[in-house]
Write a structure and sequence with these properties.
The complex is a heterodimer of chains A (100) and B (135).
Chain A lengths: L2 H27 L17 E4 L6 H6 L13 H5 L4 H6 L3 E6 L1
Chain B lengths: L9 H8 L5 H18 L2 E6 L6 H10 L7 E7 L4 E6 L1 H6 L2 H16 L3 H16 L3
Helix pairs in contact in B: 2-6, 5-6
Classes of the chains: A mainly alpha (100), B alpha+beta (135).
């Protein structure tokens, strides 16, 4: 084998493979990852799911729940649902909170 | 399928697809919510996004905006604040005591801590629906 052939086989082909793999990695990395990773900032649009969307028609008709318009959801209409403080205590909501 | 956050239409669906879930996860979530709703007769809803401080009262506010708050259960997850709030209406609370909610919250928080948002929500929904029993 000539020196050129030897160089091509033993240096050229590994280099080609390395370039191919690196190219594949960077091509995939440019896409935004959809995964949530604890500790990393979470920059997705807020979403609100219901099995039957018509049940939240009131909210859907009111406004979009995007980050910019979200405060509208907590407007006056929201407070009208349970107006009296006493009533709120009488029909107290339950549930639980947790952190991770 | 999803209430998304907007009125029915393409834009709402696109926003949901821009969310943190893949299409496959959205389908699983939808299935889990439909099952939970139809088996218990309660209304389950899931909110994923930032909650204003204090998070508890903000979650309760969101809950009160559902059509039938007394029989509704809201699972509010804020990945940025690493907070999870489960809000049950007065009627739903009778079938889902706070202890049960706390148990579901613990297992959901464990999944979220591992970075599995969709898995945590789906298992939490299943757990809550199981405890609430048939309608």
């Amino acid at each position: 084998m000539s020196i050129i052939e030897t160089t091509l086989i033993f240096a050229g082909s590994p280099a080609a493979v390395i370039l191919l793999v690196a190219g594949a990695v960077y091509a995939g990395g440019s896409r935004r990852s959809k995964r949530y990773r604890p500790g990393r900032p979470f920059e997705f649009t807020p979403v609100w799911f219901l099995a039957a969307p018509e049940q939240v028609a009131e909210v859907a008709g009111r406004s979009e729940l995007t980050a910019a318009t979200r405060p509208a959801l907590t407007g006056a209409e929201a407070d009208k649902e349970w107006p009296a403080e006493a009533q709120v205590h009488e029909h107290a909501t339950g549930g639980a909170s947790d952190r991770w | 399928m999803t209430a998304g956050e907007t009125a029915p239409g393409l834009s709402g669906q696109r926003d949901v697809l821009d969310g943190p879930f893949t299409t496959r996860q959205l389908l699983r979530l939808d299935e889990a919510m439909r099952l939970a709703d139809s088996s218990t007769g309660l209304t389950f809803s899931v909110y994923v996004g930032d909650l204003e401080e204090p998070t508890r009262s903000y979650a309760e506010k969101l809950h009160s905006q559902l059509v039938t708050p007394p029989t509704s259960v809201l699972i509010a997850v804020s990945p940025n604040q690493r907070v999870l709030e489960i809000v049950t209406g007065p009627d739903a609370r009778r079938r889902l005591p706070d202890r049960t909610s706390k148990l579901a919250a613990l297992s959901m928080a464990a999944a979220f801590g591992g970075g599995d948002l969709a898995g945590g929500i789906i298992s939490g929904l299943a757990q809550l629906a199981d405890h609430a029993g048939r309608q």
